[in-house]
User: Fold this.
Amino acid sequence: MTDDDRPSLRALLLAPPGAGKGTQGERLAEHYDVPHLATGDLLRRHVAEGTETGNKVAALMASGELVSDDLVVELVLAEIGRSDAADGFVLDGFPRTLEQATTAYEWGSARDRTFQVVLLLDVPTPELVRRLLERGAQQGRADDDEVTILHRLEVYRRSTKPLIEYYESRGILAAVDGTGTVDEVTARLVEIIDERLRAGT
Ligand code: AP5
Assistant:
């Protein structure tokens, strides 16, 4: 298959905090030449710029809670609706509740733009905590202290993990080992994505 024949990728990275969604999302977006849309980055930009949205979500984000479904859905669908994301995208951090997932599915179905593949990065909890504490020490992200990291993991288990079953039942979930070097994880993801894209054409 040549690059021109290759269908545009519409993928979701679904994984707990620290699993590598942002790291791999950027790489996959570059590899498949589609935009990378990360809700955490989008929201942090609003916080840094002190927008009305940013002021609404700053405290929730710093405490590791999710921001409201309505607010995130509106932000993300506006971003995806922009023309450069029209053919494909790598989403990271959205959907992350069943409510968001059903809204995204209705939106995508109406436009023939549902996910082709949902990539579940599998990383043991102690490694997640280690990575996030290390980043906290280096970069000082507001939610990377130990108490908040453990709370974010609990929020993931409670609100986001149910999506695994949701996407499994739609036959688009692919679990990938998220340990090892960043390059190794990217190679595993690309292999699975290429397989799925080939199967879908
Ligand atoms: P978000 O920014 O999405 O945070 P998160 O889910 O907690 O994820 P992280 O960014 O911490 O981790 P990651 O999986 O992206 O890993 P990364 O590549 O960065 O969301 C932040 C907040 O925004 C939420 O808590 C919520 O308040 C709000 N929010 C966002 N979306 C929302 C939504 N849809 N609904 C409601 N609220 C929402 O890697 C982590 C570290 O590990 C990095 O230092 C990296 O260099 C390192 N690393 C990566 N890969 C490897 C590797 N293979 N080996 C060693 N180190 C690695």
User: Anything to note?
Assistant: The chain has nine helices and five strands. The chain has a mean pLDDT of 93. The two ends are 10 Å apart (CA to CA). Strands lie at 10-14, 36-38, 89-92, 117-122, 173-177.
